[in-house]
Amino acid sequence: MSFIKPSFRHPSAPTNALGLTTQAYEGGISTLCAGCGHDSISASIMQAVWALNIPPHRVAKMSGIGCSSKSPNYFLNKAHGFNSVHGRMPSVTTGANVANRDLLYIGVSGDGDTASIGMGQFAHVIRRNLNMTYIVENNGCYGLTKGQDSATADEGHKSKKGKINPFESIDLVALALELGATFVARSFSGDKDQLVPLLQAAMSHKGFALLDVVSPCVTFNNHPGSTKSYDYTREHVQAGSVVDFVPMEQEITLDQIKGSTQEVALHNGDSVRLSKLNDNYDPTDRVNAIKVLHKHKSEDKLLTGLIYLEPESDNFHDILNLPETPLSQLRENTLCPGSAALSAINTGLK
Amino acid sequence: MKATDISNPEYFHKVVDCQYACPAHTPVPEYIRLIGKRRYSDAYMVNWESNVFPGVLGRTCDRPCEPACRRGRVDEEPVAICRLKRVAADHKNDADVASRLPAIPTAKNGKRIALIGAGPASLTVARDLMPLGYEIDLYDENAKGGGFMRSQIPSFRLPEEVLDQEVDYVLDMGVSQIFNTRVDSLKGILDQGYDAVFVGTGAPKGKDLRIAGREEADANIHIGINWLESVAFEHTKEIGKKVVIVGGGNTAMDCCRTAKRIGGDEVAVTVRSTYEAMKASPWEKEDTLNEGIPILANHSPKEFLVEGGKLVGMTFSVVESTYDENGKRTITETGEIVTIECTDAIMAIGQDNAFPWIEKDIGIEFGEWEMPIVDKTSFQSTNQRVFFGGDAAFGPENIITAVAHGHQAAISIDLYLNGKSVKEERPEPGTNLVSTKMGIHQWAYDSAVIDDDRQASAHLPVEQALASRKIESEIGFSPEVAFTEAERCLNCDVQTVFVEEKCIECDACTDICPTNCITFTHNDGTPLRDRLTAPSLNLETDLYVSEDLATGRAMIKDEDVCLHCGLCAERCPTSAWDMQKYLYTVTKAGDQPAPILIEQTSGKKSSEAAA
User: Fold this and answer.
1) DSSP string, B395-446
2) Among A8, A42, A190, whose Cβ lies nearest the Cβ of B506?
3) Is B377 helix (H, G, I), strand (E, B) or coil?
4) Which of A189, A232, B222, B466 is deepest in the core (most CB within 10 A)?
5) Burial of B115 (0-12, 13-18, 19+ CB in 10 A)
């Protein structure tokens, strides 16, 4: 078994605006099971951050516990990172984000880390509209503990041992829409053409961005009867829109547009362009998004693509009016403004 | 684009760049792995089967394999294939090798063959036909076999005992040696009733330089290859103090280094081209410079200066090479004239074929440049009984090309003498494709790719090397250095074999591939090379295209910079990728599969199989 990836790369590998090839965005060699969807997501994250021309050291990788949560070890090993307690990634990310809002926060979580032990934290980080990209590597099972059904396992799904799941599943996308998330998308690890632009858009979004990615567990949840297998997902996936992430400086050429399109400008001047499969679908309409999502579910279809986007919103920093300067750069006189300032605050509270 | 047919033996052969580039198609990665395992005799036999002179070639080969080496496309320098070959020859067990040489039948098949010239081409023909029971008469004008390997390659590059041993492996098969005999008439040979005649007489005529002063200074002007031969056979034992060499090929390098060893104190090489455009191999130029011999580029010879009937110097016109956009060179004089004092001058400006001894009325037609018309596949001339090979066939090349010709000519001679078509009934190559899987994520080869730079081959200190023309100047690799160098080999013969039915399109292989060789995309007729994960710029290498998969996409692998690291197969959950070792051998005369192929397919040593 190989533990080290050869150091040779393609001699004419393309470079981004920083002059870096994707090699600068790599991590260690994965120890996840061969064929794990998580590895495809890691590869897509590398591709997206590289294409966004973000220096690797301006990224913070946040995670909890689980197969998904160990995957940040396999990408961007020049980035900051915090592998936190099970289900507590959102709080740690909140703290980090408050301390330094200049980094790009990529949270990687799984269905257990998010929909079970971390459910409370997940709900609250959405409420707070923390500026981060929250990726759920959703395989519907607890792979690290031999594949028990997780809270996102669909009702009626058959486990590898043959047991039918009797419980209703938690749809994280629906939940996020209810809780007021400002960017909600769903994708599939086996479709990088869709996943990479969605990641770019999510990372460029100012506010909380949820990306629920179906990521088959080849070892425990890729059998006939599973509703999170490669085959089942490919058969039931229905892309609501084909997404193209368009950086600010890039002009849109006619041949890129397929079918009816809609362009949504993002906060930083970049935009997300959608080639829509359904003309009536407007991803900026939350009510409609919830409706379409439920409709697909009732038809046994998995709706993917950009489901909802609110480009301009007040995120956690705006709501709490937090200082822009990272904590580490604030001088003592700013942090401890003195007794006069304290008196003013106390007076204000009387 | 149509799906790749991997059952075509040439597809995977081409992936093994070194072997594909070798005229004799020696299975390079196969013997490099054996050297890495210190199985030197086995490595030697793999070579010997294919190229007959591993010890000679390990020192003198023109190395067409090294510029082709895939490592050179991802690393700064290719694997030192040539010097590794020498390690196999230097460290082999002679008794082991001797016991594995082919058995020669005592009952002959009644067919007699004459080989004219005892160089690498003829010796290869003898090596292939003796085990089949042919009687062979080998003619040469010199006292020993070896041809230009003996006469033109100086002993400090190729020690005599190395050459003797490998020539003797062939001669000791019972070849009848008619040496010290110059063949003056091919008709005379044919009249002796030989069933077939092979002409391997090389390109024996060194070119001369007809400029002012040539006749007057004749006593001290030498033709390079003739002079080297004269030194080799000890007719010439010394040369004057100041020697000028004219020419920039490997012969010029051999001449100057020889001159330096037998009396030349001040030796200089002059060449009309630029230093970069010289024909000599880079390593030969390097060795020359290291021995304190200057190479004067852009010097075009003008005149021999003669005083009192003796050569005292040469004048050169300094020239300039310019290239147009098509790479065509124009040489113009700058007007500057340089005079170099010298006592002797050696012309090493090329060599020609010469067949004054072949009569025009014996059915051998001659074409352009007075060269015989020889078929490029069968090496048969227009007289069915007469075959050509080596430099005699198509002009000056090198040893490994002569060996390749010899193998093919031997096949033709055997077919011809068995009443078969020399063109239609040639044997197919031998192939073997077998999985190297040893367990989950375990391979039967060192799949890890090491970062080490190309290892330097050790040389004697210059003053020691220059002491005698018979001391080998290069020491070569030690077993330890050879191991490191062997590990640099990327094992390009371990093929990435893809099975469509097993693929679940999880993308694990595309994600892990260090050089982004693999792409899954729709094979819909639009050019594939534009749509691959990594730029596909090397059009010389093939795309491995699968049949369409379940999603309608196909797997496309650009073979160009695949490291054969096996990571795609390690990360594949369904074993749709497998690392399979491909052995391609050129089948020899008598339709005999190479013993190495028998060993690989039966797991037995050839000696055991024969017993």
Assistant:
1) S---HHHHHHHHHHHHHHHHHHHTT--TTTTPPPPEEEEEE-EEETTEESS-
2) A190
3) coil
4) A189
5) buried
pTM assigned to the model:
0.88
B489 near B33, Cβ under 8 Å? yes
Nearest-angstrom CA–CA distance, A14 and A9? 11
pLDDT surpasses 60 at A258? no
- Of B253, B264, B259, B333, which is closest to residue B298 (Cα–Cα)? B333
pLDDT in tens, A213-243: 999 999 999 999 999 999 999 888 887 766 7
A35 close to B (CB below 8 A): yes
Name the DSSP letter for residue B588: B
Which two three-digit tokens encode residue B324?
């147009």
Burial A187-221 (b: 16+ CB within 10 A, else e): bbbbbbebbbbbbbbbbbbbbbbbbbbbbbbbbbb
Give the pLDDT confidence score for residue A252 in this predicted structure.
43
What dihedral do alpha carbons B40, B164, B58, B597 form, nearest 10°?
-50
A129-151 pLDDT, tens per residue? Answer: 999 999 999 999 999 999 999 99
Q: Which domains does chain A have, with CATH numbers?
A: 22-320 (3.40.50.970)
Query: How big, in percent rounded to 5, are the helix, strand and coil portions of chain B?
Result: 35, 20, 45
Rounded Cα distance between B348 and B317, Å, is: 18
Shortest distance between the Cα of B537 and any Cα of chain A, in A, equals 8
- pLDDT-based confidence at residue A261 (cuts at 50, 70, 90): low
Interchain contact, B573 vs A14, CB within 8 Å: no
Partnered with residue A83 across adjacent β-strands are A63
Taking 3-state DSSP, the helix, strand and coil percentages for chain A, each rounded to the nearest 5, stand at 35, 20, 45
- When CB atoms are compared, the residue of B440, B441, B537 closest to A12 is B537
Structural domains of chain B, ranges and CATH numbers in brackets: 1-20+429-611 (no CATH), 112-204+353-417 (3.50.50.60), 207-349 (3.50.50.60)
pLDDT tens string B85-114: 999 999 999 999 999 999 999 999 999 999
- Tell me the sheet residues that pair with B196: B113
Show Cβ contacts of residue B86 under 8 Å, excluding neighbours closer than 6 positions.
Answer: B54, B55, B58, B59, B476, B477
> What CA–CA distance (Å, rounded) separates B248 from B238?
22
